[in-house]
Predict the 3D structure of the following.
Amino acid sequence: MTARLKAGLWVRALLRQTAMQGHSAMVLRRGDEDAGAVIVVLIDRAGGLAVLREQAAFGEDEAGWTRVDMADQAALDAYLDRQQRYDPDLWVIELEVPAVSDPVERTLGTRGVA
């Protein structure tokens, strides 16, 4: 099992990094400070929606993000409801990005500690 940063610490760092880049970010749902999983909701001005979900590392595979595109706000709400039922410790963060199609997950980093 890989060591990971505490969820709350990682989220605060993400919010600070996003603000320094001149973008908007907010916590939609605060999860467990130590061990909650993190979902990042991406939204753009054109109304595009996508979700980035943490992907755990298994074996030699590196941890990262799984992207799920959302058709509309109702689909997003249903997805988040399902995820919160499975994980009551879940954090939900919203990032406003120039375009949802941009590969934002490449710059987010992960909570894994080397």
